[in-house]
Amino acid sequence: MICYLDMDGVICDFVRGALAYHKRSDLYDDYPPGLYNIQAYLQKENFWAFDTYFFWLNLQETKDAKKIVEFCKKKFDYVYIVTDPTKNCFQGKLDWMMEHFPELSTEMIFMRDKYLLANEDTFLIDDYDQNVDLFTSRGGGAYLYPRPWNRDHDKTPNLERLAWSF
User: Fold this and answer.
1) Cα distances (Å, whole numbers) of residue 141 to 53, 125, 162
2) Per-position DSSP letters for 79-111, written without gaps between them
3) Within a 10 A sphere around the Cβ of 100, how many other Cβ atoms?
4) Which of 20, 77, 79, 127 has the most C-beta neighbours closer than 10 Å?
5) What does the domain layout of the chain look like in residue ranges?
6) CATH homologous superfamily, domain 2-15+55-163
7) How far apart are CA 84 and CA 114, in angstroms?
8) Could you please report the per-residue DSSP string of 103-161?
């Protein structure tokens, strides 16, 4: 079985980085439950001004990134990182992967419509409700990784529960 593992929000802490760039790190712990649109939350017209090589390169791992990646490598035949591209993210995200998870740096797919990869032999791990819903509607399996900004914000991430999802 193939695992498609989302990068931003699952293994790479995009939200913390975006809040820090806009000098609002204080908002992370009080993030509104279930609100995915951080741009609307911050109400910044120049929200994407951080879209530079160094922003993407310098993001922190999520606190559970290593456990997630190790779990996926053990449970799936193939693991691919699937990430939504921005204008200036490509080299920064690739170099970030080479630094943090070099074994997966050659297994990256940049695409917005992840549901196009869905079939009965694929599984998506993502933090965005809509990506999970579209993926499963196309026949793939999926796990919504609990984060403050999705509908599973009140659940504790549980890799064993994830194992029972496929």
Assistant:
1) 32, 9, 11
2) EEEEE---TT-HHHHHHHHHHH-GGGTTSEEE-
3) 17
4) 127
5) 2-15+55-163
6) HAD superfamily/HAD-like (3.40.50.1000)
7) 8
8) GGTTSEEE-S-GGGG-STTEEEEES-HHHHHHHHHTT-EEEE---TTSTTTTSPP-HHH
